Amino acid sequence: MDQKSPEDTRLPQSVDDVVDLLKAGGYVADRSLATVLFLSLRLGRPLFLEGEAGVGKTEIAKVLSDVLGRRLIRLQCYEGLDVSAALYEWNYAAQMVEIRLAEAEGVTDRGQLSNDVFSERFLIKRPLLEALEPQAGGPPVLLIDELDRTDEAFEAFLLEVLSDFQATIPEIGTVRAATPPIAIITSNRTREIHDALKRRCLYHWVDYPNAERELEILKIKAPDAAETLSRELVGFVQKLRDEDLFKAPGVAETIDWASALTELDQIALDPAMVSDTLGVLLKYQDDIAAVEGSRAKELVDAVRAEARAAAAAEVR
Predict the structure, then answer these.
(1) Which of 67, 73, 169, 246 lies at a CB distance of 3.0 to 4.6 Å from 25, suitable for a disulfide?
(2) 262-280 pLDDT, tens per residue?
(3) DSSP states of 41-70 as a string?
């Protein structure tokens, strides 16, 4: 039987442990997400999370780092990201100074000089290389955020890192992680990620939460919001996601809206106030124009009608 490292013993031992662990960090996860995260932690496999922006993909890595006491190393992806920004680069200015000093001292052994300037003290370590090195408290949580913003060439480069948790630096050699980091990769699916990379990961689609779970999230993240306001607000957002919008609001926007309305001393939804604050919830003018005014009032009325019907059913 395989021996577990000290770090392994601090990881969740069941799916229920994962649910409790995330909840301790203020993250309310459904059972399917908790299950795939448990398997990722136990099998040492990267976890690839796809979903709309604002549904809580990035937050999972942050919470894991916090509750496990591990360092969070974040690689924020963007168009044009390359090896020098993701893995390493050489400190060319310092190398040139070293060469000039060596020449002034009469050093003529070019091989020795080359070894000196391409040593680790001139190496600038970027997030991926840092994640392969031992860290205090155990292997870090490596967050590769919004991978879909990069290109296919960068995906191909990642294959070595995610397959064997190693990277090759030509001047030094191969750097391997003694214990793999906890790797979380996120994508907003603005483009498809290649199958070769997905095969190296466990996969989960992070969807919008249902009303019950979103209300539970709101109670944790916006505890000062009045109960009636929270219920009506969640009902409104749930209906809004069924509208024909360019970008439906995520959970992050729900939390922001609850906080904003609480600052405005609202204890329940008011159609006029809804229209005035839609910019907190929606980020495109066409979406705001489609909802503000009469449509906002219709949605508020529908939410309240459903609440009255539910209350009447409970009485019966």
Answers:
(1) 67
(2) 999 999 999 999 999 999 9
(3) HHHT--EEEE--TTSSHHHHHHHHHHHHT-
Total Cβ atoms within 10 A of residue 143: 26
Question: Is domain 6-80+128-205 given the CATH code 3.40.50.300 in the classification?
Answer: yes
Q: Where are the domains of the chain?
A: 6-80+128-205, 88-125, 211-303
Residue 87 gets which letter from DSSP?
T
Nearest partner of 132 among 201, 69, 56, 183, judged by Cα: 183
In the numeric block, which tokens belong to residue 201? 């990961």
- Tell me how far the alpha carbon of residue 202 is from its chain's centroid: 15
pLDDT in tens, 226-248: 999 999 999 999 999 999 999 99
Nearest-angstrom CA–CA distance, 6 and 9: 5
Which residues fall within 8 angstroms of residue 185, CB to CB, at 6 or more apart? 46, 47, 48, 49, 144, 147, 201
Quickly list H helices, the chain. 6-9, 15-24, 31-43, 57-68, 83-86, 92-104, 110-117, 127-131, 152-164, 195-198, 211-221, 227-240, 251-263, 271-276, 278-281, 285-291, 294-315
Question: At how many degrees (to 10) do helices 57-68 and 15-24 cross?
Answer: 90
Q: How many Cβ atoms sit within 10 Å of the Cβ of residue 150?
A: 23
Token readout for 194 is 């290649």
